[in-house]
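Dock zinc ion; give full complex structure.
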Amino acid sequence: MWPFFALLLGLVVGSFLNVVIHRLPKGESIVFPPSRCPACGHRLAPWDLVPVFSYLALRGRCRYCHSPISPRYPLVEALTGLLFALAALFYPPSPQAFLTFAFLALLVALSFIDLDTLELPDSLTYGLLFLGLLSAYLLSFPRPFAEALDGALIAAGVLGLVAGYGGLFLRRFRETRAEVPVGPHQVHMAALFGALLGPGVGMALAFLTWALSGRTGKPVVLPDRITLPLLPLAWILAPYLGADLLSTLKGSFLAAGGLALAGGLYWAFKPIHEEGEETDPVAMGYGDVKLLGALGAWLGLYSLLALFLGVFAGALVGLAFRQRKIPFGPYLALGGGVTFFFGETLWRAYLAWLGL
Ligand SMILES: [Zn+2]
């Protein structure tokens, strides 16, 4: 009975996710007004909104104007229903099961919004992050709190630095203007000093330049041309300076992730700029970085396996369809979902295959 109940709940939640996916990027209210046909504007009755079944009964057309309805709607509902049923096979009725439902629902919403808009809304990525941390704190689920926090920071730090090096190579080592008061420059700086002096000092120094930039209105931060090339050098030299490589790497990623997630939160709460102001409205970007950070709160260091699976799946699809600009969010979400249920199994199978 429980998996069947989960399936039905998932269908209903999926129907709600369709509204979220449609309205959240436009800044419209999710609760009001009631659903209307996008073609004729006719208000939809409850029997038009029964997940999946209404679509099948109406043969994919609006009851009032007969224009075709996107198959995306029943697809999102069916997908959410099946994911909830899968979760119910892993967890008996419990707070853990409902937290897993929330995790999966957020990933579905994020994936489809990214497909539509190439953006991942901060409300959902940070919602996923804080729900994961809260769940870890209160229930040690799915990971103990210390592991969740480390996982979030390290995952965000790894992808933030990948983005940093990617950007530097794509720009052919030209320096970009640093964002005021905080941007990727602080993330790269935190990584460098985190490697040399530990994550606490790395973060503190980067926060100091953030405060100075905010105070002076000018970027006060080391250029990428210094921080990014020195960082691998610090990693290589660490063992010769009496530090071990693993803690040096960890120091970099923790500090970089801390700055990436804190900086992203600052921009998320910053009111939209007035016309004529010269700042980029999507300051920092980092949607994927924040999503992977959020996955880290749920998966701990297994989030790096989710990243690997996401890159792998994204590359396969990119090659298959010869797409240039692909949204990475859906693949990260897919990697995150697979890792949530099967991560440890996959990892053990991999180690066994290596003969370890
Ligand atoms: Zn209609």
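Observed: Residues 37, 39-40, 42, 62, 64-65, 67 surround zinc ion (CB under 6 Å).
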